[in-house]
Each structure stands twice: as C-alpha cells, then as structure tokens.
Amino acid sequence: MAQTRRQFRQYIRQQRNQLDETIQMHAAAQLLSQCQTLPELAISQHIALYLSNDGEIDTQPLIELLWSQGKQVYLPVLHPFSPGHLLFLHYHQHTPMMTNKYGIFEPKLDQTQVKPIEQLDLVFTPLVGFDSQGHRLGMGGGYYDRSLARWFATGVGPTPIGLAHDCQHVERLPTEEWDVPLPKIVTPSRIWHWEFKH
User: Which GO terms describe its molecular function (predicted)?
Assistant: First the structure.
C-alpha cells in the first residue's frame, strides 16, 4: 500500500511538473472562473489558501480576487511545537514571509495573526492526486488530514475544498483509514462534488 501511494505521488507530480508556463497560466485562469461559481466562496469571509509549489495550480489569482473582495485570507504555517500540525495565519500583501523546512514560503510566525481553524469558513487544500470518490492524496505528512479530522467526524468547522489540475485525477487511489475525503474538488475543467455522511 505505502509503495503504491508513493508510486502514485511520483507519477502525478511528474505529470503536473511537465505542464509548461502557458498551460499553467491558462489553468489558473480557468480555476479562478470555476471558483467564482462556488456558493461556499460567496458566503465565506475567512478563507485559508496556500501558496503554490512543485507544479501545483497557481493560487495567486484566487488570493488576489479574495483580497479585492475584502475577504480575509490565511495561509498554513507548520506548528512550531506540535509536529505534523498546522496553524493558519492572516496573510496580506505586507506579511513577512520565510521558508519552512520543506522549502515552501509561509508567513513568519506571529501569534497575533493566528486564526483558530474552527473560526475559518473555508479551507482550500492542496493535494497531489484525487480519485472519483473524493479521496485526496497529499504529500504524505498528514497535515491536512489532522487539520480536517474534526470536520470529517462531525461536520463542524470550515468546509474543505481541494484545488488541482485535471491531470491530478485518477480513477481510484489506495486509501488509509486516516485519510479525509473532500466534499468538493475544483479543477480548471469542472467542479467535482460528493456527499459525505458525518
């Protein structure tokens, strides 16, 4: 199972990294159009996003749209004392940034800027791959699975929505019991939607 998941990650990341700049820009514009139709986005004020990395679909246009609408944007930061967990910090044009241990930009830790996840309305999650049942394959650290575990168990907390390129879809992924499936995943060509009973 672990080997297969690793192979899936390798294969999908390879596909994603082969997308050239023009395709990436076009995909980001299409993703933005799809996201603008989300009813969840219209009613949300406090929204967690992430900065694209490793060939991920570009989230910058979406972040800038939210800023222009006066919405509050938050980014994940690796928890300094609780390994495997995330904090979400308020993010604006002048937020001081740093590189975390994975080489990903994140806001410099400032406790006054932390928003408890229960107070977020929406969490856009990165993913390596997803399947036709709504299962999400992350990078393997389990950060988002832990962050979203309460929502998955009870339905309480911010709604998670995945963002991905179309090439990140596979028919079926190998899953583990701690994996948190997503109710919606947005790609440039469509919005995938599943019903989950909590």
Answer: 5-formyltetrahydrofolate cyclo-ligase activity
Note whether residue 98 is domain-resident.
yes
pLDDT tens digits for 96-130? Answer: 999 999 999 999 999 999 999 999 999 999 999 99
- In 18-142, which residue ranges form alpha helices assigned H by DSSP? 21-35, 39-43, 60-68
Please report how the helices 60-68 and 21-35 are oriented relative to each other, as an axis angle in degrees rounded to 10: 40
- Indicate whether 138 belongs to any domain: yes
pLDDT score recorded for residue 169:
96
Residue labelled with tokens 């996003």: 49
CATH of the domain at 164: 3.40.50.10420
Domain that holds residue 82: 2-193
Give a yes or no: residue 94 inside a domain.
yes
User: Is the residue at 198 inside a domain?
Assistant: no
- For 120, other C-beta atoms within 10 Å of its C-beta total 21
* Residue 19 contacts residue 175 (beta carbons within 8 Å): no
Q: Going by C-beta distance under 8 Å and a sequence separation of 6 or more, which residues neighbour residue 114?
A: 87, 88, 89
Decide if 66 contacts 95 (C-beta within 8 A). Answer: no
**At 48, is the secondary structure helix, strand, or coil?**
strand
**pLDDT confidence tier of residue 198, bands split at 50, 70 and 90:** low
Q: Structurally, how many domains does the chain consist of?
A: 1
